[in-house]
């Protein structure tokens, strides 16, 4: 038997013209912590799985950015007025510690976006987000998926002629590439 639940007052019906990226900074304290914005619509994300959390930890530990670059996790990326996704990891040019009240980065500050695919976000991570990241001009994209209990990393670089991503590799066991600095990550998940 389905039970009717009412939506919180702040969520429904929402702004008449849809939500904007700036609206997310004004959500009430009771709003879910994990929210993305696509085409003016809020996407409330499911709780993450252990695979998702552990894979993010593996990647964070393995990315050693060049001087002047910084690694962030689960920070918003304000692409436009109606687009504000939350990549799992970003390599950015702005130091997060320079502004402790910052809630998002902009595409011109982002060198790499990483998405660890979850079942509920599969279509967004494979189709929606790459198209939006490419249109925003973000040069590198990694997508990490599960093959059984093993991670597989798909790496992409933006082709400036087509403004679309082209595959640069499929990585099992080890992710070895160059994104303006060398990357060599053991993809083994450890507790």
Count of discrete domains: 1
Class by SSE composition: alpha+beta
Terminal Cα separation, in Å? 39 Å
- Under CATH, the topology can be stated as tt1808, chain A
Q: Which regions contain 5 or more consecutive residues with pLDDT less than 50?
A: none
Instruction: Tell me how many strands there are.
Output: 12
- Strand share of the residues? 25-35%
- CATH architecture verdict: Alpha-Beta Complex
Strand order across the biggest sheet? Answer: 3-5-7-8-9-10
Per-chain topology:
Elements: E1 35-38, E2 41-44, H1 50-62, E3 70-73, E4 76-77, E5 89-92, E6 104-105, E7 110-116, H2 122-135, E8 140-147, E9 150-159, E10 164-172, E11 174-178, E12 182-186
Parallel strand pairs: 4-6, 7-8
Antiparallel strand pairs: 1-2, 3-5, 5-7, 8-9, 9-10, 11-12
């Amino acid at each position: 038997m389905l039970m009717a639940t009412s939506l919180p007052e702040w969520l429904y019906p929402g702004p008449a013209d849809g939500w904007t990226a700036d609206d997310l900074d004004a959500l009430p304290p009771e709003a879910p912590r994990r929210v993305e914005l696509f085409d003016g619509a809020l996407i409330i994300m499911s709780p993450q799985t252990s695979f998702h959390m552990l894979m993010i930890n593996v990647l964070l530990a393995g990315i050693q950015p060049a001087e002047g670059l910084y690694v962030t996790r689960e920070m918003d990326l304000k692409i436009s007025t109606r687009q504000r996704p939350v990549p799992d990891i970003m390599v950015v040019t702005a130091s997060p510690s320079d502004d402790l009240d910052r809630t998002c980065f902009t595409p011109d500050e982002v060198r790499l976006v990483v998405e660890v695919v979850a079942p509920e976000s599969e279509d967004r991570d494979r189709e929606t987000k790459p198209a939006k990241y490419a249109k925003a001009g973000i040069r590198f994209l990694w997508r990490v998926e599960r093959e059984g209990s093993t991670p597989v990393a798909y790496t992409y670089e933006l082709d400036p002629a087509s403004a679309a991503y082209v595959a640069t590799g499929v990585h099992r066991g080890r992710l070895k590439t160059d994104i303006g600095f060398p990357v060599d990550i053991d993809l083994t998940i450890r507790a």
